[in-house]
Amino acid sequence: GAVVSQHPSRVICKSGTSVKIECRSLDFQATTMFWYRQFPKQSLMLMATSNEGSKATYEQGVEKDKFLINHASLTLSTLTVTSAHPEDSSFYICSARPGGESNEKLFFGSGTQLSVL
Amino acid sequence: AQSVTQPDIHITVSEGASLELRCNYSYGATPYLFWYVQSPGQGLQLLLKYFSGDTLVQGIKGFEAEFKRSQSSFNLRKPSVHWSDAAEYFCAVGTGGGNKLTFGTGTQLKVEL
Fold it and tell me: pLDDT of chain B along its 113 residues, tens only?
């Protein structure tokens, strides 16, 4: 089956630094990728929709200047948490959809646990 | 706006017992409904989905779910639980042609041997 690789799986950083998370579709081209955030014991919340070659679409309440998304190729999207603070500590998950497919063909990465000290 | 409620945060069942995980949704139109499973440190895996047609859908690993429009529910069931089913289960509703998923808060399933 299709595989989405997310890296790193865990990262610890100091407050004020930036962290980049990568999401790669390994065996298909993903025109659309999604970034979610999951707080402990809470649901996944959609942060933004990333479209290859265009600007990401952010959900209401998500700071686009803080969570920079780049989808420069059909197999890679990155999420950069800029000037991270402890409240940004969370589990971030990406998902990718092969071009032209509906969400029944949505594949998830294994997530990144971000801890900001 | 759409929403998903999973009223049970934790459920514990004995291996071999039957299982039902509840999911209620709120959405103004015909929803696309999904159940996902998440094992520790893993991404989400799709168990099954409902888009239209037969309201009883079969999924992987022996799971099934029934869409009941009158009750706005999409409960997940399994007749006999295996220890390997211990995980967190998320119900989700897709809108915009299924393009955006709204997830419930999840149900943590523990299986006692």
Answer: 789 999 999 999 999 999 999 999 998 777 889 999 998 777 788 899 898 888 999 999 999 999 999 999 999 999 999 999 999 999 999 876 656 788 999 999 999 99
Nearest-Cα distance to chain A for B71, in Å, is: 22
SS (H, E, C) chain A: CCCEEEECCEEEECCCCCEEEEEEECCCCEEEEEEEEECCCCCEEEEEEEECCCCCEECCCCCCCCEEEEEEECCEEEEEECCCCHHHCEEEEEEEEECCCCHHHCEECCCEEEEEC
pLDDT tens column, A33-57: 999 998 877 788 999 998 888 889 9
CB-nearest partner of A108 from B9, B41, B44: B44
Closest CA in chain A for residue B44: A108
- Residues of B whose CB is below 8 A from A107: 43
List, in sequence order, every residue forming a beta bridge with B83; answer none if it has no partner. none
Residues of A with CB below 8 A from B34's CB?
103
Chain B's closest residue to A2, CA to CA, is: B45
Which helix (H) or strand (E) element contains residue B111? strand B107-112
Distances (CA, A) of B42 to A48, A56, A92: 21, 25, 12
